[in-house]
Amino acid sequence: MTLLHAQSLTVLLPHGEPLFSDLSITLQREVTALVGKNGSGKSVLAAVLSGQRQPDEGKITADSNIVVLPQLTETADLSALGTVAEALGLDTCLQALSRIEAGSCDPADFEAVNDQWDLPVQLSRQLKALGLPDDPWQQCSNLSGGELTRLRLWLCFQSEAGLLILDEPSNHLDQAGRAWLAQQITDFSGGIFLISHDQQLLKLADCIYELSHTGLACYGHDIADYRLQKQQEAQALTNGLAKAKQQMTSLTRQHQRNEEKAQKRAASGNRDRRSSSQSKLLLDFQKNSAESAASSRKQKQDQQLTQVREKLKTLQAKVDPAKPLSFSTEAVRKQSARLLTLTELALVRGKVPTVSRSVWYGDKIHLQGDNGMGKSTLLKTLLGELPAKSGEVQRHGSVCYLDQHFSLLNLNDSILENLLRLCPAYPASELRTLAACIGFRRERVTQLVSTLSGGERMRLAMLVVSHQYQEGLLLLDEPDNHLDLAGKALMAQALNQHQGSYILVSHDPAFVSECGVNQHWAFTQ
């Protein structure tokens, strides 16, 4: 059953170049996955398909209700959700039950309850099953990233939508949360358009599309097949380019040799004409025949060269024009000083037990714990953004924090304006060079941060954080979220080579192992 059909979609960037053009896709009652590099336009395509954004060209026909889980959650969106009860649409019933328990006889309260007398018990069980705090009046803005993601996913799966558009739904989720998400996707009876880099989730797809600079291409339904086809395509493209270049070189050399032979024959004919050893009529005939043959030969060679040039041009158009990214952290001054001292530290929220630890120069710490444990709360307390419930935090140097929502970035400023504000020690020319290394070349530095994808925002935020005064400590709250596989590898390499210290939160064991972590702080319930 067709749930949505999009035809010939085109979206233009602010400076007029197409982000993508002439895309067509049909979504059925199945799991359709979309992969692609950060910045290729996946989230924009999701917004267009859901009707949240209009394409510059093209048409969309939807035959089903659509519910969207966006990749990025802005601060205003968190405030709009209110409490957990409000987000679930159960606040009116719960308030009526509370008033009835207090003695209310108002018919409106009984009407609001509508036989849901056991709602508090059922809701408590449901929140526990979701791994959320059992207080329905807790503000959504106080939930951890993983808790908030589970809540919003639950709202999606419990909706009456026939089509869900899920943009990077496994971001922030721990291993238990990802297993829960996989089961929800499997059990959902409607269609799902899944945008993800999560290899485990992609195994659930019935078909996999890739969005790239060449457009939208379908790669069947198996992630292993997708990888194999991509490798085969890359090898075929490499071989084709090599063959076309070889043909071009061979034809050019042949053309030069033919030109040299023609010039020698012409010189010989001129000598014969001057010596009058043969009749002028015969010489004119030979000259005309030679010129006719040369003209025919040149025309054929030109046709061959044109064909090879067109073939080479077609193949080169398939090559990704993006230059390889490079990422580095600022060199640090080697020291043996203690950077942080925690003494009997207790947090204002979360389940992290009392902590007494020290962080020294060169410590690369992985902070482990399930969603809701209090990892982000601990980082904010170390930064000084949240007060400690009890105990003490002593900071012996600078501390720089990268949170899950890129709060350090001003969305209404350009990339360059953010860099100039946040990295004042660097001249604009050097900041442009650093931005180019992570994919923001030339005029792209004037692009507003609000128009960047999640992965692009993370790259920019990580660049800012890693170019502060690096004698201090980096606090990195799930920096691998939103990144494609290449971006993850790039960041892991940079953190591995980082000479300073950091505390890292991540739910990806492979990423953590590649980051050069040398300590683990594990907190369990």
Automatic annotation (TrEMBL):
Residue limits of the ABC transporter domain? 4-238
What keywords sit in the KW lines? ATP-binding, Nucleotide-binding, Repeat
**Where does the record place the region Disordered?**
239-280
* Keyword Lipoprotein annotated: no
Q: Which InterPro entries match?
A: AAA+_ATPase, ABC_transporter-like_ATP-bd, ABCF, P-loop_NTPase
Q: Does the keyword ATP-binding apply?
A: yes
Signal peptide start and end residues: none
Q: Which SMART domains match?
A: AAA
Q: Name one GO molecular function term.
A: ATP binding
Name-wise, this protein is: ABC transporter domain-containing protein
